[in-house]
Request: fold
Amino acid sequence: MSDNPPIEYAFPELRKWEKGAAPYIHVRESGKPGPTVMVTALTHGNEVSGAIVVDTLLERGLAPRTGTLILSFGNIDAYHSFDPRTPFKSRMVDEDFNRVWGRLDQPATTSEMKRALVLRPFVERADLLLDLHSMHDDGVPLMLSGPLDKGAELAKQVGTPVDIIRDAGHAAGMRMRDYGGFGDPKSPKNSLLIETGQHWRASSVVVAKDVAARFLAASGIVEPGDLPADWKQKSPPQQRVVEVTHAIATKTGNFTAARKFEGQEVIAKAGTVLGHDDGEPVTTPYDNCVLVMPSSTRPLRAGVTIVRLGRLV
Ligand SMILES: [Zn+2]
Reply:
């Protein structure tokens, strides 16, 4: 018996997209002035909802009316390593592709660093980037807008999901969404990272399509009518912005949650016990503390983030 979550949709065959401007990277120019807009999937190889979006856009031959559209698959080798018996393993080959972006000047010793060097010129060219992710555990979708005002503003323009998370990323290394001009408050470049829900839920594909359609329409390089009519979903009544204040990592990997958390719960009282890390209680540091992407009870490596804590702003 496997404890792995069910896979609710078919994974796309992607080898047909190998030949492009670079392997698994496709550039479509309108020939007219306008921004360069990039939509990328499989930054983590088992986060497949975004790959459905990029595969479908390539299949439909979506062409920009102005500017340039870049469609890409990031950690394609990890995707191709997928084994349904160990589905979480195909997140990466050697290391996390979304932590290497601050050290690309160093020798490329891992599969992910080599792939990042292939992707880098396209990421550098992009004025707007949407990086499509999903979550290990079931949870409500959220947009990681980065630490800057411009990211939160773009997330509001996209208009979904409800939760916009302002966060500075990970001590373990820079994410693609924070690379170069995306992380510079003075640059007009902007990026968003969507977490669509659990990796293999059909609902995550719905979220990935909705966000991609809205993002592309907001960029102005396509008309809303150029996108599949059933992608855009109803807008939530109101979005909210959560500023991440703490990232709680497990010291030794021995963390047990006090109960099952769905994600984005607001915990009213400071001092509420969220769980125990190696026997030590982990508590909320202030009233009305939002739990951002809490892990469920799964085997964890030492140093892995188990929950981020945030304030509503
Ligand atoms: Zn991811």
Summary: The helical segments are 49-60, 76-80, 111-125, 149-158, 202-219.
